[in-house]
Amino acid sequence: MMEHYMKQMLVTALDRSLPIFVETMGWNERQDEFNRPQGYHCYHWLQTTGGEGQFEISDKIVTLAPNQGILLQPNASHSYVAQSNPWSTWYITFNGNLAPFIVSSLGLATSTVISWEPGSRLSTLHTRSENLARQSFDFNGMDGSAFVYRFLMDLKRYGQVDNQRSFSQHTERLMPFIRFLEENYSNPAFGLTQLVEYAGISSQRLNYLFRMTTGMSPYQYLIHLRIQKSKEYLINDKKLTVKAIASLVGFLDSSHFVYTFRKIESKTPQTFRDLN
Predict the structure, then answer these.
(1) For the structural domain made of 169-275, what CATH number should be given?
(2) pLDDT by residue (tens digit) across 147-189?
(3) CATH homologous superfamily of 4-158
(4) Per the database record, which ranges form the HTH araC/xylS-type domain (predicted)?
């Protein structure tokens, strides 16, 4: 790897019309000291790839060690300085019409330390992006937009704040319970009680895991799973009646199935079938 690389994008008018675009990206083996009282005009991500640095933001001083980084909003006053020799960092700056919405909707923490496991994709960003930095015009525009969006998704998936589990760790913990639901959703007698017994944890803990990973309670997930399975039957087997499908996906009666389907899909099962 080079001692330093920096890719300054040629941001065109078309690029600026994209939901999100890359402005700069680079790696420093020996990070210089920076003091930006007025902040930076784009979103700014900085992560440590070696050594340690001291970062000051909003009158708060934090240490950035390996496998740690920080995401700053535009114009956020900050400064940083090496605490070791050398302090190596990778950075990316980005913006776009929907950048604030994307950062917010993903629930990404700003102005605070984000950590990740050493083996995650975030650990190898600085090496994977080196080849991109050597390209001339190829990485501008849509490719750059796709890269920064994938980076933010990885930050959502692997990032940990305040020693909390990452999204990927929650997902891994939840997968056996998801598979158990897949195996039992067609049983109308199956519900939260059976799931809690199988999980071997409290209903409160199970609810927390589901909400952190899916945004739903376990019961809501089960109902949506039943509706999703019913949509497959409605499309793939036109000979099955709505009443038969209701029974196949775990509803005790067709009227409850139709009511639930309409509530979730804003149309009846028959209308959904006719449209597909």
Answers:
(1) 1.10.10.60
(2) 899 999 999 989 999 877 777 777 888 899 999 999 999 999 9
(3) Regulatory protein AraC (2.60.120.280)
(4) 175-275
